[in-house]
Amino acid sequence: MSTFQIYATDSAPDQSKPVLRQLQQTFGFIPNIAGVMAASPVLIDAFLSLFQKVHAGTFTEAQIQTLLLTNAVTNACSWAVAFHTALALNEGLEPADVDAIRAGRAPEQRQHAALSMLTKTSIEKRGHLDERDVNAFLEAGFRRDQVFEVLAVAAASTITNYVGNIAQPPLEPQFQVHAWSA
């Protein structure tokens, strides 16, 4: 059971309220994890800014969800795994590929597998990638500069994953069907 408060727009610190309003517009609700983050205006503002930049990058939404789901599994964040499972399926990822990622395996789709493996390896090796790791990504049709974009997605999701692991916010009812544990 979490001991961290989940803020709503009316109860959040004043500097966090604009971010919560924006998330409400984006998702139609304020995710519990964002409600927890709202305790720190610095954190929630940085989170939103980084996620906006990530979603405006070169990867498709399906590719971003592949990265975010892989990161959530690698960081063992149950809340984020359930949330990104739902978003990945909504973005058209094959259910078998989503199941593979949730089980810690590479998806079948070649580019999604390359994305998943590079981000998982980056987290596990703490950024100490070797040329084989990078070449496997490049051979799937990605560019060298996109290696760093994968790191931007990992940085953004690390915020969510760590907040989820520390605060353990309850999973919203609409994501219960995708509940996961390490």
Automatic annotation (TrEMBL):
Signal peptide: none annotated. Residues 50-109 form the Carboxymuconolactone decarboxylase-like domain. InterPro entries: AhpD-like, CMD-like. This is Carboxymuconolactone decarboxylase family protein. It comes from Paraburkholderia panacisoli. PANTHER family: CMD DOMAIN-CONTAINING PROTEIN, SI:CH211-175M2.5.
